[in-house]
Structure formats: structure tokens, C-alpha cells
């Protein structure tokens, strides 16, 4: 594995290459795996399922080994960062798998720079605008941002976990419920004063991002929307199906749940089966 940086200052983006770019071919382009705000370390188990590929992972802006800050991060910044990494590879179009916020950023990037991609798999993009309860979701995100500013990471993260675990459309009275206790999730109760958490810096941009449906439809069978078989009616899975319906294609089933490409203590996934399913989608001429 080799590590590289594109850009400098606040625009420095760190990325890793597993394998050899000189082995990239038209039929086996580099495979770019990413999320947001999850950094490259979260994709090690999935990358191991592709020993036949040059695999690229990266740390999104504000996360991992990149510079930190407190300002909100826009989808447009992520799109530019992803485009710069692909250009720096110098190997032509890539196959790309984006998950969670990374899937939103991938869909935005593929809309803006379709020439950067051969095949695209967007796994559980938590984009609210196409959901029937999108206004309610965005109101909760606004409340979460206010909580983060006033009370810090623990209290806001508890609200985030409760939201992403919620199954089904969010009811209008959701915010009238008692706020979840951070201690329930093993989160800090006290505010440490920091405001650099990339998750909250990515809100509301990622969740409020409105897809360019026409541009996505124009990608045809190069694009696959995907949701986990264990994800049920959670927001990200519902959004994947809603975007797929808007562009007129079925969403593909993937094994496990939102982070099923990882097998973690206390939160098991199935990276082998997950990788096999991704192979089915990207191992084609």
C-alpha cells in the first residue's frame, strides 16, 4: 500500500492505493471505495476482498489524516476532492463504491463528472429530499446542529444515532419526544468544547443534498443504487430506494446492514459476502 496527498493547506486530501496502478486495464479499472465522514481505515476489510484490483481509499475532507476545522463542509467541496483524487491517479475512469454520506457525494460527483466513472455503486445514501418525510428529517437535522453548537458532540451524536436507527417514516411530532441520553450509547455527557467532528460539519449538506435526477438517469446501467437486506426502513435504505425509483431502476440488495462491509466487535457485519456482492456488480466488461 502507498499513501499520497493531493492539494495543500485546507485542501489537502490523503488517499491510499492498494496494489499497482500499472496493472489497471479498461476491463479492470481502479476501484475507489469511500464513505463520509468515515475515512480510509473503515474500508480495509472490504478492500481485502479485491486482491485482483488496484483499490483506492481516501480520507474525506475534515476527517482522518486531513486538516480539521470547524466550518461546515459542502457537497461541492467533496465533489471537487473526489475529482482531484481520480485525476491524480492518472488511470482514467474508475469503478466507484460510495456508502452513506460517501454515496451522496458519489452521486453528486458522478452527476458533475460522469467521465470519471465506468461503474458506480451508491450504497444507502442518506439524502432526504426525495423522501415523503424529508421535511421532518431536515427539521431533525437542524435541531441536531443546534444541539451540537450548544451542547457538543455527545448530546448531538445521541440524537443522530436515534435518528439513523429509526425505522419507517419520521412522524411530525418526532422532536417532541424526550432527547436521548448520551450515556445510553456510551457517549460523553460533558461538552469538551471541540466543534471539529466531521459528521456534524457535513450536516446539513449531505442529508439535504437534492439529487440531479436527470443526470443520474443519463448514467443508465453504469449506476446501481443499493441497500442492505438488514437495513429495513431506516432513512438511508429508504433513500436508496427512493432515488432508484426516481431514476427508474430497482435498488440492489446487499448483504447485512449500513456498515455491513465491516465486521466489528459488538456490531458484526459480513465483509466477505458484501465484497462478493460488490464483485457481481463491478466485475463486468
From TrEMBL:
SUPFAM superfamilies membership: alpha/beta-Hydrolases
Residue span(s) of domain AB hydrolase-1: 33-128
Stored InterPro entries: AB_hydrolase_1, AB_hydrolase_fold
Pfam families: Abhydrolase_1
GO terms of molecular function: hydrolase activity
Signal peptide extent: none
Protein name (record): Hydrolase
Organism ancestry: Bacteria, Bacillati, Actinomycetota, Actinomycetes, Propionibacteriales
